[in-house]
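INFO batch 0412 | record 1 of 1 | parsing
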Amino acid sequence: MTAQTPPTPPFRDPQLPFAKRIDDLLARLTLDERIAFLHQYAPAVERLGVAAFRTGQEALHGVAWMGPATVFPQAVGLGATWNDELVRRVGEAVSAEVRAMRARDDRVGLNVWSPTVNLLRHPLWGRNEEGYSEDPKLTSAIATAYTRGLRGDHPHYWRTAPVLKHWLAHNNETNRDTTSSSVRPRVLHEYDLRAFRATVEAGAVAGVMPAYNLVNGRPNHVSPYLGEHLRTWTDQDLLVCSDAGAPSNLVDSEHYFDTHEEATAAAILAGVDSFTDHGTDGSKIVDRVRGALEKGLLSETDIDAAVRRQLAIRFRLGEFDPHADPHGDTSDFDTPAHRALAREAAEQAIVLLKNDGLLPLAPGVRVAVVGLLADECKLDWYSGTLIHRSTPLEGLYERFGAEHVDFAEGVDRVRLRTSSGTYLSVPLAVDADDEVRGAEGALDPALLAGRTDLPPLTTDATGTDLALIDWGEGLLTLRAPDGRYLSVAEDGYLRASADQPGGWVVQETFRLEPAGSRSGSHGSGHLLRHVGTGGHISVAADGVKVADESPEIFELEFTERGEDAVARVAEAADVVVVVAGNDPHINGRETEDRTTLRLPAHQERLLRAARAANPDTVLALVSAYPYAVDPTDLPAVLWTAHGGQAAGTALARVLAGDVSPAGRLPQTWYASDADLPDLLDYDVIGGRQTYLYFEGTPLFPFGHGLAYTTFAYEDLEVTEAEAGLKVSFTVTNTGEAPTDEVAQLYARAVQASVPRPRRELLAHRRLHLTPGASERLAFELPLSALEFWDVAVGRPRLEPGAYELLAGASSEDIRLRTTVTLTGEPATPRPVREQGLNAADFDEQRDTEIVDRTKVSGDAVTPRADATGELVHRGCDFGTGVTRVEVEASGEGVVEVSLDGGPSLATVAFGGTKDPYDYTAIGAEFAAHGVHDLHLRLRGPLRLARVGFSG
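INFO prediction complete | emitting tokens
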């Protein structure tokens, strides 16, 4: 008898809709199997032939953490291109490499955690490099382009499944898992949500990752906005993946819940589908979910909803249709096209900030290239490993010839003398093949921090010249003559073992401290503190190591000052290019915010030395964030983010004029730290932040960037379209160089009834024009682009009146303007007698912050510590009259009620409750009629939820 072939289960049938197939597979999974799927590392279900699956593959500007890959410019550099189509092609290339790498290594995941769409509200944020722009419109345009490239254009199967980071209002690394971002409704809807919403609505997003921080007192991993907003923007299933360790933070650091079972249940109910916690070990999450089920905090239906969303992504990725998946045999990796695209992106990301005619460089000039970044191609935390490498020095050698280029790094070179008169010495290095290398030997690329098979540093009578590299704020790196950085491994010994500073905890940074700063130490020398461990360096018989019991006192003997080397080559050159900036692992990165906009003092000294020796000095800033530099005495200044593998070639081609620069600043460059708000002030409206509201004079404005030619803007026309406005104008290249221009369209409400942006980006277009060529640009704008969030009615509203439309080359370089008058929707007074007021729906505030009304949903308002807070609700209609106010609050304190800023008309005192979520409604006499501005003054640690009126 012939054995019958078992029927194909419906979930394996590619002819069925995904929804039916998901239903079938879900029904076949046991409860234990479904629970196990909730961890990042979902195990295989062998009895069904279902493979293991991992959420999460970093791919911010190339495939990260998985070895060699094409490295594109940092995300902020991609934002500086203002080129949606280019960024789409970058996303396409990255996703192709994800697929190609997965074909040979199944650890590479197809659920990519990128892009980052957090807005670059504050330039001191350590992760500035990861975002695209301070503007929500530009951010969403670039993010949409990148996700479309990552997703691919097949109607059913996705090349990769992108997840947006980090939901929501996340702009600080300082105490990032315990700080709360106070986000008023207008800022929430007009600013923070906008970048996410437009990208999700475009249809190429698989989900989001919540951020570590809290918003309005509630952790993002239990945010009601996931259901109230995110999942209403699309009819597709969206996967919500937790950030690493964040589920445990709900109890361990945030103390928001008492038990992990409560926290896990709350996260699942809020919409989290995949828990990234405890590495590859899913047992703790499984135990917590089981415990939550046993306690009745969750139901199987809740588990199924999360698993269903995971399966939806896996089906879209073609996992269950390997023969039909059009992306399954992708082999595009490090192709000539990808290498050319990396160079194109690096070129388009360069922003010319100032040029008095020195650039482009004349043929045949002798160039001195100097500075700490001059011969560096720096990577960041989310980079892949370089296959190809190009530094500014190498690019200039290639472009102008080595005989026309001189180089001085500008580092201080020192010997460290011990208290016994000997010197720190770097011993001979032995590589994996036991080949001995001298101090001048070539750097073995396999040398990485953490190696313990290399000999530790010793001391001897002559010592080794070390490059002392000062990155500012007291942080130093020390490098041996062959390029190896001093690093400390787990055994505590100091070795020359790192090719670059890096790692989650950087083990290559040090601080010099006066010897007298440590109790019991004397003399004029210095202690050398290792930042990664916090301990001091000591000298022992078995080698140099971290051992705090006997720290060594070192004297620094300078064998060469960096300024001297810079001045020497600058004097002999026709033009000097000073390459300054940051190392992305030091002073500003994930886990660490910056403290200042200033360029590090050592780099300022190098710049001054170059400028004093040669007035024809170009400053090329290569950095992950803006700096406050004085360009007055500099004839030319450029900026580029770290540009990936082609950074040096791109910079050299722009300096030489082979490519005319056309990048534009994606965020405001402020003139000084005094222009910045507090890092934790998330109220961009009240704090007058970003180009939208900033009233000072920026160093360089949002959208700024020059070219090697000039452009004329003409014939601005506005006509009514079907659902909005059609705006058109002509751009002409009036110079002699072919180049790109980035045309920008802004708007402002002329006589707004509430604070509105000084101007707001509505559209942009990057276009290429040859000399004398013109192009007519047309933009169709929905009227919704001119709306604001009206807190009085809890929705967007188009205010009637005049709106100015402005076209130009930056937010401040406006060339054309016209005014249109729109009918809109008139404002109506708040019907407070009938509906009362939510405290958080204020128009203005002083010294307050928004907190969670309950752990599940809603907002309340509390005064800042030791301050009297005030809320203003404009246009409150008390009708024919009220005689009583009822205040709903928790905690202890006083609420005073007044009208139009006058004297207090009612005072309500709260005696205090142990539970901050135990609200009490207390009434008081209060007489008012007609329309007034309501003022509420808050004192004491209370939470004000609502006020109502009667009588």
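INFO post-check: The longest helix spans residues 84-104.
INFO record closed
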